[in-house]
Amino acid sequence: GIRLGVDPLGGASVDYWKAIAERHGLDLEIVNGEVDPTFRFVPLDWDEKIRMDCSSPHAMGRLRELADRFDVAVANDPDADRHGIVTPTAGLLNPNHHLAACIAYLFGGHRDWGADVGIGKTLVSSSIIDRVAADLGRRLVEVPVGFKWFVDGLLDGTLGFGGEESAGASFLRRDGSVWSTDKDGLIPCLLAAEMKATTGKDPGQLYAELAERFGKAAYKRTDVAASAEQKDVLKRLSPDQVRSDELAGEPIESVLTEAPGNGAAIGGLKVVAEHGWFAARPSGTEDVYKVYAESLDGEERLERILGEAQQIVADALES
Question: What class is the 95-214 domain?
Answer without folding.
Answer: alpha beta
